[in-house]
Design goal:
This protein has about 400 residues and is of the alpha/beta class. About 30% of the residues lie in helices and about 15% in strands.
């Protein structure tokens, strides 16, 4: 009889030996039989990138085009982008190049998707793929077959972590379920899962709005994957009960509120203070989602934040029209890439705020370009999401340029 593990984590305060507890919680429950899955117009600035074989519309968009300083994963939707990112980072030529587990989240559930980005980083290391209700999009199905997850020791060999019982349950894989009747419950359950796996809750938490529009929340996904800090959703004017309980288990973390007051109100900040749910509360925001993402990329306080104000880094750019591209791009914030997520709210041209930021960190050299640092930008989505013209503009202002030491 096929069964699926159901994970309901205990309060972190009661976890005496977290990894052992996690194993015991899932032991014997992830007994779904594991079966062997077989492996199976002119733009002068763009150069073709060699891939294993031709990519059809039913296959993930592995990196197929590039410029000097950009790589595009050009899927027609977020599900294809997620599959393309996973395949790019886990080529699968050797066992160690295959992920231990994969996370499945519904493609319409961006709130859970952002909270789940933390699963892409250590210690879980499960990149996200998207389901379409209880079925798999062709790109997800094909990527799952190719990636062939090995099974995670943190979940007694589970190969798939399903976020909610309504998410697809592919045959032939050991699965674990993180349950929750709402996105707030699922986010809290994900947080407990990761806290148990790590042995302690994170000392910092990012709060994003589930109601103010996904564009403001998208950058939280990359930081969660990079740092292991929890990303938890709140309402515009209140902290939902399951998230409040999750914050209490962090034992007064430093809390960072993402977005301006019209997205997450001062009432939420006051609730954090009055209920003593946080040691400190700070807001990271800009007047627009594009500027807010730039503010997050620049922000640094002690060991929290990217703090990218000089050249020599990777970046990811996604369109605000595709919220789940934030979850799709989350693995690019870990596994050797470590790229913050920037957003564009236009398909045709580069927003001025994003252009100014890239110019402020554009790399340069005085004498020997071989001694310089470089920037590289990963672009998520096809030209309907981010045009070739915008990619070319990003490439141009990411280019290594000569500078004069005593120039005007």
């Amino acid at each position: 009889m096929r069964q699926t593990a159901s994970y309901r984590a205990p309060p972190v305060a009661r976890v005496v030996a977290p990894l052992l507890v996690l194993a015991l919680l899932l032991a014997g429950c992830t007994d779904e039989a594991a079966r062997t899955v077989p492996r199976e117009p002119e733009r002068p600035a763009q150069l073709p990138v060699t891939v294993e074989r031709d990519v059809t519309v039913d296959e993930p968009a592995v990196p197929s085009t590039a410029t000097r300083n950009t790589i595009r994963i050009g899927g027609p939707d977020a599900a294809t982008d997620a599959a393309g990112v996973a395949r790019a980072l886990y080529p699968g030529s050797e066992s160690r190049d295959r992920p231990k587990a994969l996370t499945l989240v519904d493609q319409d559930d961006w709130v859970t998707g952002i909270a789940a980005a933390v699963l892409a980083g250590p210690p879980v290391g499960a990149p996200l793929l998207l389901s379409d209700g209880d079925s798999l999009p062709p790109a997800t199905e094909e990527a799952l077959t190719r990636l062939e997850p090995r099974g995670s020791e943190l979940s007694e060999g589970a190969q798939l972590i399903r976020l909610g019982r309504d998410v697809a349950r592919p045959d032939g894989y050991r699965t674990a379920v993180v349950e929750g009747e709402s996105a707030f419950h699922r986010a809290a359950a994900i947080d407990r899962f990761v806290s148990a796996a790590r042995g302690a809750p994170s000392r910092a938490v990012v709060l994003y709005s589930a109601e103010g529009g996904p564009a403001w929340a998208m950058p939280a996904a990359a930081w969660a994957a990079r740092s292991g800090d929890a990303a938890l959703p709140v309402r515009a004017d209140a902290i939902p009960a399951p998230v409040r309980r999750a914050l209490a288990e962090h034992e007064r973390p430093d809390v960072y509120v993402l977005g301006p007051e019209r997205v997450i109100s001062t009432g939420v900040v006051e609730q954090l203070k009055q209920e003593k749910l946080a040691r400190s509360v700070r807001r990271i925001a800009g007047p627009t989602p594009v500027e807010s993402a730039v503010a997050f990329a620049r922000y640094r306080r002690r060991d929290f934040g990217w703090g990218i104000v000089v050249p020599g880094f990777n970046f990811t750019v996604a369109s605000t029209s595709r919220p789940l591209d934030a979850a799709a791009a989350a693995p690019l914030a870990t596994r050797g890439v470590f790229a913050p997520l920037l957003v564009t709210d236009r398909a045709d041209e580069l927003p001025r705020a994003l252009e100014n930021y890239f110019l402020s960190v554009q790399p340069g050299y005085e004498d020997d370009p071989g001694e310089a640092v470089y920037n590289r930008v990963w672009i998520l989505g096809d030209e309907e999401a981010i045009s070739a013209a915008q990619q070319t503009a990003i490439d141009r202002i990411t280019e290594l340029v000569p500078v004069r030491a005593n120039g005007p």
